[in-house]
Amino acid sequence: MAIDPRGADLKRLLAEDPGGPVVMLNLLRFAEDGLESYEEYARLLREKFLARYGAEIIYAGTGSTVLVAEDGQSWDAVVIVRYPDRAAFSRMVADPEYQEVTRFRTVALTEAVLQATVPWS
């Protein structure tokens, strides 16, 4: 299961760019004892990268009561981050300093969804 975006994923993200801001949906399933590692990733993300790339966390929260889902479709956490555009997200992911920090995210997760969204008119 993929945890981190790959080069081909980022190329597709940019190729399908409708322009304007992008809100990234993060659905997270933690490894046993992974929450602490993810919290370190989130701290470093806030301290070093969000302002640098014009991003902001819109929402972060723990998954709770599942009302409609098949078995295995519940998530441990949801994080929603807004970037000024897809290029800013891509630049952040390519930043060598950011790439060093992603190890905390990678070891923290067993499964993830990272999906760009397009606002409705």
TrEMBL record:
Gene3D superfamilies reported for this sequence: 3.30.70.100
Q: Which domain of life is it from?
A: Bacteria
Provide an example Pfam family for this protein: DUF1330
Domain spans labelled DUF1330 = 36-110
Protein name as catalogued = Uncharacterized protein (DUF1330 family)
Instruction: Identify the species of origin.
Output: Amycolatopsis magusensis
